[in-house]
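Write out the 3D structure for:
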Amino acid sequence: MSKVGKCNIEECQYNANQACFADNIEVRSSTNDMTVGMSENTCCETFKPKIQG
């Protein structure tokens, strides 16, 4: 299990009760210039949508 303390993305298949169960995660800059000054400028590359059905 990854060491992520909390995940609020309910649509991610790795989220169970607000805990991340991915083996590891990758976080990247969500801006084109790769400059990050706040959490809003980051995104989780590990995200996978939950399988419906």
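The beta strands are 15-16, 19-20, 27-29, 42-44.
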